[in-house]
Structures are given as structure tokens and as C-alpha cells.
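Pilot study result, target chain (412 residues):
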Amino acid sequence: MSDYSRRRNGTDRSTSGSSSSSSGTDSTSNAAAVEEMQKEQVMIYLTQNSVTHHNDEIPETLAALQKADQLGLGKKSMIPISDPFADGHRTDQYAFGEQMASSMVWWFDDPTLEHGQVRMDGRVLTLGVNDSHVVEEGTWKEKGTLKEGTAERVRVDWLTALAHIGVPPSRASAVVHALMTDAEGAAKVMHSGGGAANEMLQLISVLNRAEMGEFEISSFVLSGHHFSNTSYVFGEFPNHEYDDNVTTGDTLDVRDLEVLSSVFPKAFSQVDSMMFSACNTHDLGLEDASGEKRSTQDWVSSTFPEATRMSNWQKIAPGSDYAAFFSGEFALDVAREEAGQTDAFNDWQFTKTKKGEMFRSERGPDGTFTELPTDRSRSSYPYYNDYKGLRNSNHEAFHSREDLMRYILKKS
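Predicted structure:
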């Protein structure tokens, strides 16, 4: 639960922490006090589209966070996660810290490295599979057949990489077991494609920091392209062709996020709101153990067990310049609702386009999500203004705006 939710429900954490019993050792009391301190609230903005989102969705969402802060609704920072953006700006500095990020050289930095590889401490690690590992091509939904020993090597190299970024050994082993071990205990590659290795390592670093108590992840956004009846969100190449090969491409699979929630239970349970900024996310192509179709709401409930608000698209979402308005309004309405404006989440302006519709859902007392009726309001968010939105600029990178960069959480 976010600090906004605690304030709304009258359960401010600092108050509960100060009332702890005087019995017990000082170390125990200190540990409890630290655990109960209010922590910085963070939104993860995980985007598979590195070509444009630094100019549209991310700056507009940052402007919405800024607006919420100016309105006295509470401050929330953002950690964006992406491959290097088209203008060269990188998000790994926010996930790992500048010094740690500079210690890693990825395949997109060095042409001598193969796709999916990274160099750490002079050692080349293979974190994602590439075409040289594929014996037989897969389908649009199923992975191809890999050369013998590939999964074993990737799994070992992931352990090395996780140790390098500071994930404790027991948790690193749990990550590898969850993502890269099948039901019989044999090595396998994760559901996500080889090209998503960079974003996955960044995400795991951020999750580990939240699990360790550095901050709380109160909002989670997953952005990119998505086909109906598939479980992965994917990116694109600089020429805007889709990078959607499920074996080697930049495909981040929601099944991997779901299993990571068992490794980082504290981090995932902190999330109060979750948004898909991607087409067709009403159908993630998931099934339960009996083969029955799982809803997107069910996946959110399982992955983020304390989430109370979510949003997803049915059919086609707009291009990212217009999608920025939807993301920004979502962030601002969540802040309003968490601050006590109980009707803010079902009173929104940007609800649909000619090709698709965005649905919002809220968790009820029975623990299930229900889609909300749309009480459209022109006053909820700035109406279309030449794609300038709250940021009052068009196609200006977030990292060039000093005012917006105050809402990016930087790791020292």
C-alpha cells in the first residue's frame, strides 16, 4: 500500500512505528523503526519502446507526477526502465547507479559482442539467446529449439550478473530458479526474449532495492506493443519494425513478472496501481492450470496482490504521442484517489480512440477487479493541445527538462 493509501485510510506508518514497545533489544527496535518509516514512493515505467517514449509518454507522466505534488497530493518519483533511447539517453544509471552502469558493456555498445551479451569485469556473459543459439525457429507464440547447453550457460551467467549488481546470493538463486528452471528442475530460458535481457536485469535490480527497503514501488506501468492472445509486450527497431521474436527479440513476457513476484514479495505487494500502455492488453493469452482462459484482471491480482486500481486497452491503443495523455491522466487520477478524492479514478477524460478503448478497473471488497463505468469529464485533465499536455511541450526529451528530472529517482 502506498503512503497515499495509508494517509487516506488513516494508517500513517510513522505513527505506528513510534508506538513500538520499549522492550527488546535496541537493534530490534531500530530495525523495526526503519521498517516502519515512510519511504519514497516510486513509479516504475517499464517501456519496451525505446524509440519515442523519452519524448512523449515518460515526460507527460512525469509532468502529471509534478502536478500531483504541486496540488499537495504527495510526491512520487519515477524510475524509467528501457533499452537506450533513440537519442542515446540510458535508464540503467537509474536502475543500477552510474558507477555500476558504467561497469557493464552491452551488445548494443560493442559490435564484438553478440546479441544478448554483456561484459562485466572483463568477462563476457550471455544473458539472452540470439540467432546463433537457435536450431529450429519457433512460432509467433512458442520459442524455438535451442542448441544443447544454451539454457545451462544462460542460467549460470545470470547468477554471475546478479551477483555483480548486488543481489544477495540466496535471492539471486531464487531468481534463476523462478525464471530459468522447469518443473523437473532442468535449465530453461525465461519466457522473455533474448533482447529483453537488459530491461530484465534493470527491473530485477530495482525490485531488489525495493525489497531491501530503499523505497516503495506504489505504481507500475508496462508500455510497448502487444498482440492479442500473447503474453509478451515488445519493442521496435529504429526503423519502427517490430522486434517481436519470442526467442531472440525484445519481448518482455508477463509470465516472468508473475513468477518474480514470489521472489520479491514485498516489492510486488507495495504496488497499489498498475497500468498497461499497450494494445490488446485485455487478452494476455494466459491460461490457468485447468486450461481455462485467465483475464488480465486475474493476472494483476496474482502478480500485484495489494493493487487496487488497474488499466488496460481493448483493441488498438493510440500512438505514443497521444497515449502520453492517457498515461499522464492515469498517474494524476491515481494520486487524487489515493489522497482521498474517491471518485477521481472513474472520472476521466481520455477513455478511447476510434480504434480502441481504455478500461479502468478497481478491486472490490471480495478481492476481484471490476471494470468501472466511464463518467467522462473534460476537467479531469488538459484536453488535446497540440500534444503538449501538462508538460507544455511537444517531443522534448524528459532528461532535457530540469523541472521533470526532479521526479526521476537517481541512485547514488
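One observation from the pilot: Residues 40-405 form one domain. A full batch analysis is planned for the follow-on phase.
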